[in-house]
Every structure is written in structure tokens, then in C-alpha cells.
Amino acid sequence: MKKTFIAALCASSVGLGACGLDIPDLNNPSLESLQQTPTRSSVTAAAHGLLIGNRDNKSDHNGYVAHLGLLGRESYTFDTTDPRFGNEMLTGTLNPGNAAFGGNFWTGPYANIRNANTLMEALDKVPADDLNDAQKEAIRGFAKTIQAHEFLTIVSARDTNGGPIDVSGDPRTLAPIVSKDEMLTRVVSLLDEAKGHLDASVAAENDAFPFTLGSGYAGFEKPSTYVKFNRALKARAQVYLKDWTGTLTSLGESFLDTNRELTLGTYYSFGTGSGDTINGLTNTAIYAHPSIVRDAERKPDCVDVGAEPFRCLDARVGRKIAQVAQGTYQNLSSTYGFTMYEQPTAPLPIIRNEELVLLRAEANINIGTEAALTAAEEDLNRIRVINGLEPVLLTTENAVDVLLKERRYSLLFEGGHRWIDMRRYNRLNQLPKDRTNDVVHERFPIPVLETDARQ
């Protein structure tokens, strides 16, 4: 009975951190040394561990982008060794008992949240001549931003099923499961707390982290610039909360810049070296959903050329999609593949300037005044014209339709945005059902080990 309880505790949200750091890991110091005798090197190693944990399972072929892409009909995964990609993910119900499918995106994020708590608790014990107060503030700002991002991953997958947020206490005590809005509110408050720490570090004339964030954070590797990433994440969470004026405030403090490239942003980076991780979205079993090409808008006055099948379509299609040999599995088929992740080291976006422009347009559309609608029209048309499409006249009647189309193609297969967006606007019933028994799942269930531990 005791062994069963411990196993359930490790799998539940409240037990993950305590169990996870007990396992030897070259990317993390031992739990005992971090808690009792932390040093600069052990703390910075733990910070690197948070970066690695945050990247974990985002680009796997059964990871966050691929699974949410399946649910949002952005992609197929024709893995002939596992029929669940075609049946469980697209028909029937999601199984909460399997951590690779219906029970996914729970244990990893909660482990990282608890590990961040352990890191922050250790900071007070590090001697001042090893890490000064300003450096510790920078680490706290970083760690709380990571925690907020992990909670955002959990609530994006679980939606109204919610999840625990009070997971900083005794791991043997089960934290209550709270609502979606409470989780998102916690995301916002964590990001604000993180900003306070980052600002305090800069105010103390320390504008550097005592560790490197890696190439994916190029341009955002200092507290004064990392805070702009923090504000971008807050804007995304505020849009999910329908806090439209708050969204505009956060975007004003973010890295949104219509004079900069739309690709500006933060990314998960990958490598082929020993101990590193490759981008698993290179998997040849992953195909693009045919509706992406079928629904794409045509450029005005364009003449098709046989050798250039996407020449007359929205330029985002040609940049992200290519024709490939037909893949067929379980009465599904596609002749399109993604080109964004052709190399194992291809970066995966966390949040980009293009999304921020779209978030600003969404906030203005929902504010709904004439001036706000005009501002939204300018932002949406800026993206449309760049991609070879004609400007549109935005009205209160067509604004959401235009927004969702632009988000669909701009953020294609980057982070489950299509599924999340259609759910947010109660339009999941508009997603394609390719077979008679197909369904569109609304949310992931809470894992069975989590619910069993509460009985």
C-alpha cells in the first residue's frame, strides 16, 4: 500500500518535484545539495534544468504541437506502429490513463513548476559573495516566468477541466483543482511577480542572468529584455481571460514592433550533440491536413503555374507547406508536409512578433469601438499584404472570421493555436471531420493517477 501511494504521489501534480529531483540528472543538481548547501554552480545548473524541462515534450511526435495540431486539424500523424493517433485522438474519447496521449501535458509541466520552487527556495541559502541579491532577483524573475508558462501549457490542454495551482507546499498534501479562469489568473499574477523581480535586478544595476538562456532567447537574454518576453506571455494569457484592455497594456510593454520582422521572438532550440534533444517534428509520419491548402485564400490576379502549385495561394502556405508523396492510414490521407521543421535543429517558436500583432488585433476587435476596429484592421491588413493578399474592410460582422483565418495561417503548427482558438470562440464544430465517426475533442482529461490519488 505504501509503495502504491508513493507511485501515485510521483505521478500526481503535487508530488512531481519531490520525486523528480531525486533522480540523478546531469541537467539538475541533486535535490539534497540544492536544498541544503546550494552554490552558484548548483543554482545555475538548476536554472538550465528549467529551460530543458520547459522544452520537454513540445516537439515530440506525440508532443504538444503535434497532438494539439491533430485535434485542431492542422496535421495528421500516420504512425503505423500506434493506431491511437488516428483513433483515440480523432474518434472516441481521450484516455486519461495514458501519459503519451490523453494523460499528456501534465506530469512534465508540474515537475518543472515544483523544480522552480525548489530553485527559488535555495536562493536564500546561497552566500552573497557567490550570488548577490540582484542576481538572485534575476533568477526569481526567470523561474516564475517559467512557472507561468508551464501553467499556461496545462490550462491550454485542460481548459475547463482546470488543475491545481497551489503546489508549493507539502507534496503529500493534495492541492485542490481550480477552474480555468483561476489558473489563468495565477499565470497573470506569476508573470507580474516575475516582472517585479526582473525590474528589481535591473534597478540594482544588474542586467544579466548568471547563466545563459541559449540561442532561442537571442535578443531576450538579459533581465531588461527577458521582461518583454514575460509581457508577451502575459498578453496571451490575458486574451484567454478576455481582458482586452489589459492585453493592450501588456503588449505595449512587450517586444511587439511592426517595424521589425514578424519572426522576432523566443524559440525552443534543439541540437544533435550528446545529451541534447532534436526537434521531433521532423518525423516523416507527420503530414499537413489537406484543408490547409483547400481553404487557403488566393492572391488577386494570379495565374497558376503547374510547377509552382502554391504560387497563387496565401504566401504562408508556400512557406510552410510542400507537396509530398501521398501518405495514407486508417482511411485518412494527405499529400502535404510541413517545411518549417525539416532539420533536426530547426527552432520551434514560443511566441513571435506576428502573434503579438494578432493579439493586439483581437483585443481591439473585442473592444469594438470604431477606433479600435480601425486599429485591428490595420494590423490584420499589415499581415495580409505581406503575404500577397488584398486588404479587407473590417466590420463588426466579419472581424472574428478574418482574425481566426489570419491566426490559422500565421501561427500554423506552432503551438496548437488553431484548436485553442476555435475552442475559445465556440467553433470547434467547424473543424473538419474526415470520417463518419470522427469527433473533435474539446479538452484533455485530468490524468487518472491524479484523480485516483484524490479518492
UniProtKB/TrEMBL annotation:
Which parts of the sequence belong to the RagB/SusD domain?
Answer: 338-430
User: Which positions make up the signal peptide?
Assistant: 1-18
Q: Which InterPro entries match?
A: SusD_RagB_dom, TPR-like_helical_dom_sf
The answer to whether UniProt assigns keyword Oxidoreductase to this entry is: no
Nucleotide-binding found in the keyword field? no
Superkingdom, taxonomy of origin: Bacteria
For this UniProt record, give its keywords in alphabetical order, as a comma-separated list.
Answer: Cell outer membrane, Membrane, Signal
Compartments in which it is found: Cell outer membrane
Pfam families according to UniProt: SusD_RagB
Record's family? Belongs to the SusD family.
Q: Which protein are we looking at?
A: RagB/SusD family nutrient uptake outer membrane protein
**What is the protein's species of origin?**
Hyalangium rubrum
